[in-house]
Amino acid sequence: MDVPVYDKKGQQVDTITVDEAALGGEVNPALIKQAYVRYHANRRQGSARTKSRGMVEGSTRKLYKQKGTGRARPGPIRTPLRKGGGHAFAKTKTRENYRLDMPVKMRRAANRNALLAKLVDGEVKIIDDLSFDAPRTRDVVDLLKAHNIDRSCLIALDPANRNARLSCRNVDGLDACPAHELNAFNLLNHRYVIIARADLEAWLAGPSSRTGKGPASTPRAEAREAAKGAA
């Protein structure tokens, strides 16, 4: 698949070849959904708590007499039927566990397949260079206008690109993330994706491109492997 590469003004300057087979060959909606549900569930804190009628502040007296008023039979003010009353079945657990797991190979395949879905739909804008001289919101706004981006957008940046990261903070509908943390959840939560050519090539050649379940190739992991080899 040949994907166009643009400059900041929206003009095509080159193309990049992406191997569709390395990204799964074809879009697998079931796999992508499973990964999305997992990412979404694992973001939940599980710390929601509610109070039972015994925990709510208020008197236990009967509000008014049982008969003679023409109204419904009253109970105390803390009953679950009244506004401000306690919950009939209160959440009292120390912590709810909503975490889901997924094999490493499936997670990596889902990340690659989500990127393939975006590429097929033409929703990935590859920029030759995303560096800015200074942090200016106007530069990012002009970049979005030049590429006709009018919906939610995710811009994947090199963590060292400080000026671009600061320039994205005040743009409505735009989120930024480190390029190496690009995953199915971030991709599917936004209509468009902007990424620099070098960052995309590094992501395609990084841990997400691995089809096995070995450890991620990080500097710390490489140093550990080197120390084992020296021993």
Task: Explain what you see.
This protein has helices at 29-42, 104-120, 137-146, 162-167, 184-188, 197-205, 219-230; strands at 2-6, 12-17, 124-127, 153-157, 174-178, 192-196. By secondary structure, it is an alpha/beta fold. It folds into 2 domains: 2-30 and 102-230, Ribosomal protein L4/L1 (Ribosomal Protein L4, Chain: A, 3-Layer(aba) Sandwich), CATH 3.40.1370; 45-97, no CATH class. The two termini are 44 Å apart.
Task: Explain the layout of strands and helices.
Layout: E1 2-6, E2 12-17, H1 29-42, H2 104-120, E3 124-127, H3 137-146, E4 153-157, H4 162-167, E5 174-178, H5 184-188, E6 192-196, H6 197-205, H7 219-230
Parallel strand pairs: 1-3, 3-6, 4-5, 4-6
Antiparallel strand pairs: 1-2
Helix pairs in contact: 1-2
Which features characterize this protein?
231 residues; alpha/beta; Ribosomal Protein L4, Chain: A; 2 domains; 6 strands; elongated
- CATH architectural grouping of the largest domain: 3-Layer(aba) Sandwich
Kindly, what is the distance between the CA atoms of the first and last residues, rounded to a whole number of angstroms? 44 Å
Tell me the β content: 5-15%
- Oligomeric grouping of the chains: single chain
The beta-strand count equals 6
| CATH homologous superfamily annotation of the largest domain | Ribosomal protein L4/L1
